[in-house]
Specification:
With 319 residues, the protein is mostly beta strands. The protein has helices at 192-198, 213-223, 282-291; strands at 2-7, 13-19, 26-31, 42-43, 52-65, 68-71, 73-77, 84-87, 93-95, 103-108, 116-127, 135-143, 149-150, 152-153, 159-160, 162-166, 168-170, 175-177, 184-188, 206-207, 210-211, 240-245, 259-265, 268-272, 312-316.
Length: 319
């Protein structure tokens, strides 16, 4: 069993493991990103950081059964949901809330320095009332002899839950990838990765027969104003945007008469008018995207989300 552990700045910790004891490898990864979500008009966030460490060794993964401990392996998601499951002794299946109290222990070799000990504990699992295929997992982490702290924090620094998702996040490009070996990832609530799920764009789901995987990718680009799809945000936390889509029926419809900022595909904006922050001119962003090999971004000419192959529309009052 091999493991990957990421520790980020700004009190952020990203933890993952790869379980290769079963028939398929399972990787668990986590992501921190700043931002908040309020009722009504949506708010966006910005950050997507991470540094991977090599040479990580998983010491144990277990859960208490009365006075004894049972080892856990075979981590996966219940099909069509974000509910985590794993197998204990004698093939006993632990699912969702059954995993409360499960602990995973690592040693991390950080480039020849003293090994870092990391422990992750699943605190609780609850089901979303509005989207029953989403489960919120409360996770604590301890580094070395420090105290257990929440793995996820919102834009105000308040502990929050994670949503376990299939695949993994490429922390260099800020892209969600489906993975090929049963990978799993944590998307923290209140982040671009988490709130796009709660807005309905669950990458494992279909809507009207349409896979929402690319809508999810487009949403995470849109939230962070990553126009060129290069993991470069052009916004500030707390900036309101109005979001809609071209699905039938639509998951989100316009709530304002704000001007169209951009239309979005999985790799960034497909057309652009005035960026939501006045510090970024349209000409500067267009030049940035051309330099990144995206070609010249046209202006958005109508209200159709599908213009230029778009999936989502963002409206904003530039500020």
């Amino acid at each position: 069993m091999t493991v990957a552990l990421t520790v980020c700045g700004c009190d952020e910790v990203v933890v993952g493991f790869e379980d290769v004891t079963g028939d398929e490898a399972t990787q668990l990864r986590a992501l921190h990103d700043n931002g908040v979500e309020l009722n009504g008009t949506r708010f966006n966030g910005t950050r997507f950081n991470g540094t991977w460490f090599n040479g990580v060794q998983l010491i144990s993964a277990s859960i208490s059964e009365g006075t004894t401990k049972s080892s856990l392996s075979g981590w996966s998601l219940v099909p069509g949901t974000s509910e985590l499951q794993a197998y204990g002794a004698k093939g006993l299946l632990y699912r969702g809330a059954d995993l409360a109290g499960a602990r995973l222990q690592w040693l991390v070799d950080d480039g020849g320095k003293e090994p870092v000990s990391a422990q992750l504990r699943i605190v609780a699992v609850t089901q979303s009332a509005s989207l029953p295929d989403i489960y919120f997992t409360d996770v604590d982490v301890r580094i070395n002899e420090g105290k257990l702290e929440s793995l996820c924090r919102d834009g105000a620094g308040v502990p929050t839950s994670a949503i376990v998702v299939p695949g993994y996040f490429d922390l260099a490009t800020a892209d969600w990838r489906p993975g090929e070996h049963g990978e799993l990832a944590f998307a923290c609530r209140g982040t671009a990765a988490g709130k796009c799920l709660e807005w309905g764009y669950r990458m494992w789901a279909k809507h009207g027969g349409v896979s929402l995987a690319d809508h999810y990718r487009a949403c995470t680009r849109m939230v962070r104003a990553d126009y060129c799809g290069t993991n470069v945000p052009h916004t500030e936390n707390g900036t309101p945007i109005d979001i809609s889509d071209g699905l039938s029926p639509a998951l989100l419809t316009p709530e304002t008469d704000w001007q169209i900022e951009a239309k979005w595909g999985p790799h960034g904006a497909v057309c652009l008018n005035q960026p939501r922050k006045l510090d970024h001119t349209r000409a500067a962003v267009v030049a940035e995207c051309e330099a990144a090999g995206r070609g010249k971004l046209p202006t958005c000419d109508d209200d159709d989300p599908a213009e230029y192959g778009g999936l989502l529309v963002s409206q904003a009052e530039p500020s």
